[in-house]
Write a structure and sequence with these properties.
single chain, alpha/beta, TIM Barrel, five-stranded parallel sheet, two-stranded parallel ribbon, 12 helices
Length: 238
């Protein structure tokens, strides 16, 4: 929940002036009120636009909610689902998120699926089990052909907005586990083809080291994405 319309316009204008490697995809995820203007602003550029959330229902008495069809009507074809803040602050459990994922995929919307453990779960040594359950409940009911439309985003909750960051070794370890889990559920080829992002206090100063992990394919960037120069610096860390 950052930036009014004017601020969003200014950020996008600055981002469009930046450069980053041809093999790096950049997506911005503004608030609902700025989605349509963002789509218009980035036309003709290499920047994509995603929504931060959506409802599983196609329409009806869900005051304040947004459907897949509404997003598609303004040319938004990617959505972030299962973000740790939606889980923690808005009571979205695995079942709710799974319904959203299914609705998005059926509608032809690409999903950035977020998952990750709390600090207590990491300290208890249950982080792998927690993540495996979130994957099983959230996306593993999808057929292999649909999973190709899912981007995975690992968020160690204890490293989001805290200034703490999982070490490059911790990030790589979890990403490798996720890829192995996908391979066990589907097959190795699909597991190698999916993108797994890391989200948790990524900044220009640590991005290169984090992204060096063999199974770390990119980042889900929070506060650092609110500065065009910093965001572009992260994109140029590959």
């Amino acid at each position: 929940m950052n930036m009014d319309a004017k601020e969003a316009d200014q950020l996008l204008a600055k981002l469009k002036q930046q450069t980053w490697p041809a093999n790096v995809t950049m997506i911005v995820a503004p608030s609902f009120t700025n989605l349509d203007r963002a789509v218009q602003a980035v036309k003709g550029s290499r920047i994509g636009v995603a929504a931060q959330n959506m409802n599983a229902a196609s329409n009806g008495a869900y005051t304040g909610e947004i459907s897949a069809g509404m997003l598609q009507s303004i040319d938004v074809n990617t959505v972030i689902l299962g973000h740790s803040e939606r889980r923690a602050d808005f009571g979205e459990n695995d079942n709710i998120i799974a319904k959203k994922v299914d609705a998005a995929i059926v509608s032809g919307i690409k999903v950035i699926f977020c998952f990750g453990e709390q600090l207590s779960e990491r300290q208890a040594g249950s982080h792998f089990n927690v993540v495996k359950k979130q994957l099983e409940k959230g996306v593993f009911d999808l057929p292999a052909v649909a999973l190709a439309n899912v981007v995975f985003a690992y968020e160690p909750v204890w490293a989001i907005g805290t200034g703490e960051t999982a070490s490059p070794e911790q990030a790589q370890e979890m990403h490798a586990f996720v890829r192995e889990t996908i391979a066990q559920r589907y097959d190795e080829a699909l597991a190698q083809s999916v993108s797994i992002l890391y989200g948790g206090s990524v900044k220009p100063g640590n991005a290169k080291e984090i992204f060096a992990g063999q199974d770390v394919d990119g980042g889900l960037i929070g506060g650092a994405a609110l500065d065009a120069d910093g965001f572009a610096a992260i994109a140029n860390s590959f």
